């Protein structure tokens, strides 16, 4: 009896490892922290570079440029003067020179200009030329994460096919933790750039392995759509919390504080992965996956990837350019630069959870088509805002529409692989993440240059028109045909209602315990 008590926690842990919901929790938390770090820097970097580089340079030049004023005999701010002309005493203010006192004269105070409101601390920053150049530099810094992730993603997809999803997920956690700590203590543009690029490597491991793991665990198409919506809700929640959290902490606590909080949360995520996923265990896929080049030649996968790329490119262009545009035109304080993204984040969170269920009923292709059209219209309305309140409507519509596209396209990518290729998901979700990263690489890097050349309003017009023009292509995803070798497998199902399907490999439950392989062999 005494020996049975210590086994209870281990039995509960083994039962937890066999639970698909805990796998969903792990992926949710990983995407949450990844996207909090993605957006927490958005309000911090532009103002931090402006303060350290522009104002810092001006402060160093200020002592050399100032000259001492000629000495003057100061009088108290308000002093009494006796007049022998009419035996009265008058009160004068200001400083009086020695010459005036010797001559017995006093100059009348200069006429005061009309009363006007003094400039507030949140007045528009100086240095228009510096801010114009900063658009390009900040855009390149933000794009570095996506560019690195773009390069690393295909390798991570192949790695997950060989060793499974657990070890790459844990590698992603380690790299993300190092990147977060580096952000906290970086004081120059170069170090911030390296930290952002390092984040791209960690994000590639976490997102590809996490989404592929969910697709392999939840094989039913309807169930997978709901789960992908919940997982993308973690992404949305990270975007929701990141920018406002970063701006408020930076304003009232300091630059390092939000990153140190994220580093602590990342440690908790690592402990959760150690308990649930057993990252020391290699579990390769039993079936060889379709090569990446074969998937890239599939026109339906390319259409879905293009929808992910262009819809997210709009918000990617806003991240480096909108805070600087607000500083120039709205004279916004630092805390408003992050809260401006709050409507987009809240509506994205609502959209991903709502259309994770509705998209399967109304048609994921239709949901994506409407979403891309709304993205374009919302972007066209952003330059019309005159203050932060005018950004609520356009940013809210933008986030809701991107949620419609993401919650529809992610399940479609897994469904297209089941329908037309081998049911191994690491490579296809690497392609989906590549499309996502292309939007966040091309958007900031080109957005800053376009703003400097033709202005922020024309940038919004260009990307808005692109989204509206691409939207009709989603119609081709309405009823994609199956490959010839898959028709026999899917012949007993209705092609218009692909609720579930049988994959080519033998599917088993997802126990993550050590004896899972033995159970699978005995079952065969």
From TrEMBL:
One of its GO terms (cellular component) is synaptic vesicle membrane. InterPro entries: MFS, MFS_dom, MFS_trans_sf, MFS_Vesicular_Transporter, Tet-R_TetA/multi-R_MdtG-like. Keywords: Cytoplasmic vesicle, Glycoprotein, Membrane, Neurotransmitter transport, Synapse, Transmembrane, Transmembrane helix, Transport. GO terms for molecular function: serotonin:sodium:chloride symporter activity; xenobiotic transmembrane transporter activity. Residues 72-482 form the Major facilitator superfamily (MFS) profile domain. It is found in: Cytoplasmic vesicle, Secretory vesicle, Synaptic vesicle membrane. Belongs to the major facilitator superfamily. Vesicular transporter family. It comes from Aramus guarauna (Limpkin). Residues 108-122 have a biased composition (Pro residues). Residues 101-127 are annotated as: Disordered. It comes from the Eukaryota. This is VMAT1 protein. GO terms for biological process: aminergic neurotransmitter loading into synaptic vesicle. The chain crosses the membrane at residues 22-51, 171-195, 201-218, 230-253, 259-279, 300-318, 338-358, 365-385, 397-417, 424-443, 455-477. It catalyses: serotonin(in) + 2 H(+)(out) = serotonin(out) + 2 H(+)(in); dopamine(in) + 2 H(+)(out) = dopamine(out) + 2 H(+)(in). It is a multi-pass membrane protein.
């Amino acid at each position: 009896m005494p020996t049975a008590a210590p086994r209870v926690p281990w039995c509960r842990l083994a039962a937890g490892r066999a639970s698909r919901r805990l796998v969903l929790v792990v992926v949710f938390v990983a995407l949450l922290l990844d996207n909090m770090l993605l957006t927490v820097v958005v309000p911090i970097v532009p103002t931090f570079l402006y303060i350290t580089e522009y104002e810092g340079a001006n402060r160093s030049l200020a002592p050399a440029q100032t000259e001492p004023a000629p000495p003057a005999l100061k009088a108290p701010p308000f002093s009494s003067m006796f007049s022998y002309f009419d035996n009265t005493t008058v009160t004068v203010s200001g400083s009086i020179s020695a010459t005036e006192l010797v001559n017995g004269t006093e100059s009348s105070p200069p006429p005061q200009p009309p009363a006007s409101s003094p400039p507030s601390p949140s007045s528009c920053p100086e240095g228009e030329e510096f801010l114009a150049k900063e658009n390009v530099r900040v855009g390149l810094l933000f794009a570095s994460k996506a560019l690195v992730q773009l390069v690393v993603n295909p390798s991570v997809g192949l790695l997950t096919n060989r060793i499974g999803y657990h070890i790459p997920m844990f590698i992603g956690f380690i790299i993300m933790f190092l990147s977060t700590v580096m952000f906290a203590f970086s004081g120059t543009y170069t170090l911030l750039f390296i930290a952002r690029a390092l984040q791209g490597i960690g994000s590639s491991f976490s997102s590809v392995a996490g989404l592929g793991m969910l697709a392999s665990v939840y094989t039913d198409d309807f169930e997978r759509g709901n789960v992908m919506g919940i997982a993308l809700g973690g992404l949305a929640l990270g975007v929701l919390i990141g920018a406002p959290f970063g701006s408020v902490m930076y304003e009232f606590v300091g630059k390092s504080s939000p990153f140190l909080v994220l580093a602590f949360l990342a440690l908790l995520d690592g402990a959760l992965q150690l308990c649930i996923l057993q990252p020391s265990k290699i579990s390769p896929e039993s079936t060889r996956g379709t090569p990446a080049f074969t998937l890239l030649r599939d026109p339906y996968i390319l259409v879905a990837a293009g929808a992910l790329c262009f819809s997210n490119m709009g918000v990617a262009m806003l991240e480096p350019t909108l805070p600087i545009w607000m500083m120039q035109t709205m004279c916004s304080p630092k805390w408003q630069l992050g809260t401006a993204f709050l409507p987009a984040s809240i509506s994205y969170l609502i959209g991903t959870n709502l259309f994770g269920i509705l998209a399967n009923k109304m048609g994921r292709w239709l949901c994506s088509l409407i979403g891309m059209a709304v993205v374009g219209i919302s972007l066209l309305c952003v330059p019309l805002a005159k203050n932060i309140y005018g950004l609520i409507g356009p940013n809210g519509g933008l986030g809701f529409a991107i949620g419609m596209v993401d919650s529809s396209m992610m399940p479609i990518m897994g469904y297209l692989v089941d329908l037309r290729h081998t049911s191994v998901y690491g490579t296809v979700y690497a392609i989906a993440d590549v499309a996502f990263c292309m939007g966040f690489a091309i958007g900031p890097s080109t957005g800053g240059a376009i703003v400097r050349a033709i202005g922020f309003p024309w940038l919004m017009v260009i990307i808005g028109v692109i989204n509206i023009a691409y939207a009709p292509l989603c119609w081709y995803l309405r009823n994609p045909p199956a490959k010839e070798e898959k028709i026999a497998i899917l012949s007993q199902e209705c092609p218009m209602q692909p609720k579930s399907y049988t994959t080519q490999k033998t599917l088993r439950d997802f126990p993550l315990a050590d004896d899972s392989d033995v159970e699978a062999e005995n079952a065969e």
